[in-house]
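To the wet lab folks,

You asked to see what we're planning to order before we commit. Fair enough. Below is the target structure as tokens, and below that is the sequence we designed to fit it. If anything looks off to you, flag it before the synthesis order goes out.
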């Protein structure tokens, strides 16, 4: 299947639910995905297959928007003789200073809490913080980094609702693992519109001696050690394994 055929097939998935994704911005597309996901998710009467099809379609359409952005309009020229006023930042938005063009100098000015960070299909992390709560990815990173008292290490924290994952890499100390779990669960609720059932935590040193942990959420919250598993969260077998563990722990089928 060519890229164009893949794109058309993804559009048809959204159109089947009454939404035409053509021309939507990244934010509008995500909002449309969130609305449809509530209908497709197995917990809301949908099916795992329908949710998987929707997620694949969203990834295809999102990638097209990311790599083929619409050209931004040029700013209007100031009137002759009129002094141009600098725009003020939005209230509450933290924007780090622009780095120098020299790559070495740019790396030196990058905030420590962003070391080694990228956001997958969303591209490199910018460091902008738009909301002062756990619905903002960079607010979580910055807060956990600043609150760390012990040695910091890289954690990959992934909230899971039975079908979807929301992942976030955080540089923090291990004593904040509980807080990172709760923060990413809240982020998942904000981004997906669904409550996380569990959170998978992998540290940068995850191996046989330091296996990843699965934190079960809800009334029967618990922490389970998993065998080291390098398979992708997109692997259906790995997702089935996590669901079996969750269902067994909560006594559901």
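Sequence we intend to order:
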């Amino acid at each position: 299947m060519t890229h164009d055929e893949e794109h058309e097939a993804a559009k048809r998935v959204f159109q089947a639910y009454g939404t035409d994704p053509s021309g939507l911005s990244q934010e509008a597309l995500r909002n449309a995905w969130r609305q449809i996901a509530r209908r497709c998710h197995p917990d809301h009467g949908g099916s795992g297959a329908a949710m998987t099809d929707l997620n694949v379609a969203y990834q295809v359409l999102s990638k097209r928007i990311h790599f083929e952005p619409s050209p931004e309009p040029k700013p209007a020229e100031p009137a002759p003789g009129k002094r141009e006023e600098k725009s003020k930042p939005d209230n509450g938005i933290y924007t780090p200073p622009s780095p120098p063009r020299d790559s070495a100098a740019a790396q030196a000015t990058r905030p420590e809490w962003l070391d080694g960070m990228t956001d997958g299909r969303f591209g490199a992390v910018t460091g902008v913080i738009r909301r002062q709560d756990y619905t903002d990815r960079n607010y979580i990173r910055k807060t956990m980094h600043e609150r760390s008292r012990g040695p910091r290490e890289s954690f990959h924290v992934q909230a899971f609702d039975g079908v979807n994952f929301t992942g976030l890499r955080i540089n923090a100390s291990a004593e904040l693992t509980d807080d990172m779990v709760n923060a990413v669960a809240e982020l998942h609720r904000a981004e997906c519109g669904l409550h996380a059932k569990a959170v998978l935590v992998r540290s940068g040193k995850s191996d046989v001696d330091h296996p990843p942990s699965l934190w079960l959420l809800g009334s029967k919250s618990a922490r389970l050690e998993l065998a080291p598993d390098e398979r992708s969260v997109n692997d259906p077998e790995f997702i089935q394994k996590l669901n079996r563990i969750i269902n067994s722990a909560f006594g559901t089928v």
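Structural context that might help your review: The first helix runs from residue 3 to 15. Residues 66-73, 84-90, 99-107, 120-124 have pLDDT under 50 and may be disordered.

Thanks,
Computational group
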